[in-house]
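A.,

Following up on our hallway conversation. Structure tokens first:
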């Protein structure tokens, strides 16, 4: 018995919410098996839209949060690519998808990210830009 019958594999990351089990005639558990994984047909692209205005502080916590989130993904060619757009009064592309091809490079860039600052927070502009580009 399997539910669901498949999982999704992106690079070396496997996303599965189901489990397969083998039961005997009395419906007792005999073995547990992983569902068959289907390969992603493409990279997983993540674009982080990051508020760098003066309303966000302390900045070190933002950097730590970003690093913690990004450390959970397998970064590299054929796997996950990450881009970051930072906004405040203006929008700045901190790095493009694939610019940091290793997890080490990506996490170092997140640690060294400086806050743009600014008195305005233009969230809609940043989301629109991330969505269109």
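Then the amino acids I'd put at each of the 133 positions:
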């Amino acid at each position: 018995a399997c539910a669901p019958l498949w999982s999704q594999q992106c690079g070396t990351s496997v996303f599965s919410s189901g489990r397969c089990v083998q039961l005997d005639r009395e419906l007792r558990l005999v073995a547990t098996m992983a569902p068959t994984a289907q390969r992603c047909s493409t990279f997983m692209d993540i674009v982080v839209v990051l508020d760098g205005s003066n309303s966000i502080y302390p900045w070190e916590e933002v950097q730590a949060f970003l690093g913690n989130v990004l450390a959970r993904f397998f970064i590299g060619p054929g796997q996950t690519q990450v881009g970051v757009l930072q906004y405040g009064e203006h929008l700045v592309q901190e790095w493009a998808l694939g610019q940091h091809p290793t997890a080490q490079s990506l996490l170092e860039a997140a640690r060294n990210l400086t806050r743009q600052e600014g008195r305005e927070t233009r969230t809609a502009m940043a989301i629109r830009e991330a969505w269109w580009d």
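The two ends are 43 Å apart (CA to CA). Curious whether your intuition agrees with the design.

B.
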